[in-house]
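W.,

You were right to be curious about this one. When I first looked at the sequence I had no strong expectations either way, so I just let the prediction run and decided to look at it fresh. Below is the sequence, 169 residues in total, followed by the output.
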Amino acid sequence: MAISPKLLTDGESVVVDTRTHPKALIVPVLVLLVTLAVAIFLDRHIGNGVVSLIVWILALLVVVWFTLRPFLDWLTSTYTITTKRLITREGVISRRGHDIPLHRISDVAYDMGVLDRMLGCGTLVISDASTHGSVRLHDIPHVESVQRRLTELLDAGAPAADPRTDDGA
């Protein structure tokens, strides 16, 4: 899952490398089970060869679209935090990527619903200095520790305050 070392710049190292929490696969697995149950039920009760074939073709299409596609999306989407930037990569056939340099990040927050808290994941909300405002990374495993680690990186890279401009407040 780790990002290729050839994509890193000199002196850059990976701090956090993750993908969306497996929670994202709950609905696709339920769709798979329901589709198979309905297809088997219809196959047993119809008995007609042509209609049975149509049922299984439709079941296959449902499984491919609502189970296999989300699984491949989950498998190929990664979120990487390095010592210099946040890297997001996603896509099966065509790849999309977004890099945010750490020095452009102005705020890091997270949201966790009840189910997220039970499963140990949440949404990481990263505000940067761009016109987009913020980036939401959904279903990040251990979101609190990822947010804390990213904040530590931002604090470590923050320029020290100039004592000559300190107003003493």
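Here's what jumped out at me. Helices lie at 26-46, 49-76, 114-119, 143-157. And, maybe more interesting for your project: The longest strand covers residues 121-128.

Coffee later to discuss?

I.
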